[in-house]
Amino acid sequence: MITARALTKEFKIPRKQPGLKGAIRHLIHGTYDCKRAVDGVDFSIEQGEAVAYIGPNGAGKSTTIKMLTGILRPTSGEIRIHGVDPQKERIKNAKNIGVVFGQRTQLWWDIPVEESFSLLKNIYQVPDEVYSENLRLFQEIFGLSEFMGHSARKLSLGQRMRADLAAALLHNPSTVFLDEPTIGLDIGTKEAMRELIQKINRERGVTIILTSHDLRDVEDICRRIIVIDHGKVVCDQEIRALVAQYPMDRGLQITLSAKSPGLLEALRAKEGITHAAMEDTHTLSVEFDPNLHTAFSLVKEIDQSAVILDFKLKEPSIERMIEQIYRSGEGAK
Amino acid sequence: MRSVQIFFQMMAANLRGLMAFKADFLVSFSAGLLSQTIGLLFLGVLFSNISTVAGWTVFEAAVLYGYMFVGEGMMTLFFQGTNGLWRQVRRGEIDRYMLRPLSLEQQIFGRDINLAGAGTTMTGLAVLGYSLSRLNIDWSWWRILVLLASLILGPIIRVNINFACSAAVLLLDGGGIKGIVDDLYEMGKYPLDIYPKAFRMLLLTLVPYAAISFVPAAVLLGKRPVAYILFLPAAAVLILLLRKFVFHKAIEHYEGAGN
Fold first, then answer.
1. Percentage of chain B surpassing pLDDT 70?
2. Percent above pLDDT 90 for chain A
3. What is the mean pLDDT of residues A128-132?
4. Which of A66, A97, A110 lies nearest to residue B20, judging by beta carbons?
5. How many domains does chain B have?
6. Which of A185, A187, A283, B207 counts the highest number of beta carbons within 10 A?
7. Which residue has better confidence, A328 or A187?
8. What pLDDT, on a 0 to 100 scale, did the predictor assign at position A333?
9. Cα distance between residue A214 and residue A230, in whole Å
10. What is the fold, at CATH topology level, of the domain defined by A45-243?
11. What is the pLDDT of residues B154-190, one digit of tens each?
12. Virtual CA dihedral for B241, B242, B247, B248, nearest 10 degrees?
């Protein structure tokens, strides 16, 4: 079980004026901006859950993950991972968790993957039978053997991420943190990553905490979603409940031959239009309540004041749902 | 015991990683030999013009060089990871260390080896051996003990000075202190007597380069009483504690600010 209570992290960022003069002034009389990256976050995650921790860039996701894994010290608040404070008892916590940072490898750069694995086996004291059983599983899903003899620096991104995920799972951690694990990967590799993550979650009851901008990762792996924005939790729910709760507005994307003055204002004035904006000079995006409008009636109406080159319907998806959550968060401020 | 075993396994992996680049392997090794030889040339030029420095002859001064080379060489060879901690921070390596169930020190010590250190160590041992053999020393049991102790404690002191300094750079978010400590390193190659009193104290205590070279050399050569050797273990303990303290503070700072 993982709990975070009133978790807060503030950073002091030096404010420097440009140029040499600014640098000297900062040296003598430094001023700092205080940035609250994580602001009173609370959650509790049961063993075996798969939770997506998502939010826009700079929302505080990675800072939270770094605090949960013991890298950063919270400014205030409390974290317990299986009863352990990850910062005060870093080594004890490290034995229980596995971590993948999509942007950075955990492997030794210059030595073959195989040797990195055998070093990790010794460091985590993985019993022989667990080690070979895990290697067999990774081989089956990932086909690791083709590059086990290569050093990490020689691997492609796809191979490196597979090796990284395998390395994070070698010691059967009870909780796995995945920070953007599929970033930059091709579809095939993404699917293999998801398959392995799903498997260890469902078959071994490993807790998964995932951050990703790829919502396919979220849909495939997680059952619960925590949305964070400006350091605060804005939504924490089962994905299924969330879908039911958000009567999803339909979306239309319309390509116009030219910008049509007054069109946006006219649309926004209507009842049942929840969103109307130009995505670029020619692309109009509209969202509407399906009880009050149909796509057809709207297209017909817009056609009277502008020339429509093309249009498409946007399906309700988690992505659009999250867009709505962000947007309502913005509105609340 | 297990952590020692893991340390050696990390070292072996580092060595194998190095072997993959054969040309680099040879170049580093020769670079180590070459750079110290250039240092010795300077010593030769110095003593070709004057016969003694503060009462030390050329071979006596070469003993100081030998000691400094051995310390430097052993550090470069086995504990290269204590160098440039801030670089490891930039690359996110410290984050990775923190995710593993090992102490940070152990991972930093075991991070890297550099073959240039083997060249430097060999040059150092050769210079030390040759100079001592030219100096007609009466090798009583306690002199042998002093020699052995200094060859073990010297590198330990060298590594901890470097590690403390590297950690201080991290703590202060700036490299100024490293330049100062590196300049002091050069002072360890000459008899302490030529420096003003404040520098002598500094080199025996806070930045104890003199404990690596001057202290054992002066005792071996009879230039100081035997009890003077106590500066060696005292400096080793002091710098070890200092290093632990500065490193602890640096990591605290890092955990607060991130990279």
1. 100
2. 51
3. 96
4. A110
5. 1
6. B207
7. A187
8. 44
9. 20
10. Rossmann fold (3.40.50)
11. 999 999 999 999 999 988 887 788 889 989 999 999 9
12. 60
Element (H, E) at A5: strand A2-15
Domain of residue B20 covers 2-257
Domains in chain A: boundaries: 45-243, 249-315
Q: How far apart are CA B219 and CA B158, in angstroms?
A: 19
Residue with tokens 């939270």: A64
Q: Which two tokens stand for residue B102?
A: 């090992």
Asked if pLDDT for residue A317 goes beyond 70, the answer is no
**Whole-number pLDDT of residue A332:** 47
Q: Quote the tokens at residue B249.
A: 């503070």
How many whole angstroms separate alpha carbon A143 and alpha carbon A171? 19
Token couple for B146: 């002093």
Please give the biggest Cα pair distance in chain B: 57
- Tell me if chain A has a CB within 8 Å of the CB of B256: yes
Encoded tokens for B45: 């030029």
Name the CATH architecture for the domain at A249-315. 2-Layer Sandwich (3.30)
Query: 3-state DSSP: chain B helix, strand, coil percent, rounded to 5?
Result: 80, 0, 20
Preferred mutation among B3, B25, B91, B98 to probe A, highest tally of A CBs within 10 A: B98
B73, B122 in Cβ contact below 8 A? yes
Enclosing H/E stretch for B131: helix B116-133
- Which pLDDT belongs to residue A329? 64
Does B103 lie at the interface with A, CB-CB under 8 angstroms?
Answer: yes
Residue of chain B whose alpha carbon sits nearest to that of A115: B13
Spatial CB neighbours of A326, under 8 Å, sequence gap ≥ 6? A56, A227, A229, A234
A118-132, A162-176, A297-311, B192-206, range with the lowest pLDDT: A297-311
Give the single-character DSSP code of B53.
B
| Sign of the torsion formed by the C-alpha atoms of A146, A149, A155 and A158 | positive
ipTM for this prediction:
0.83
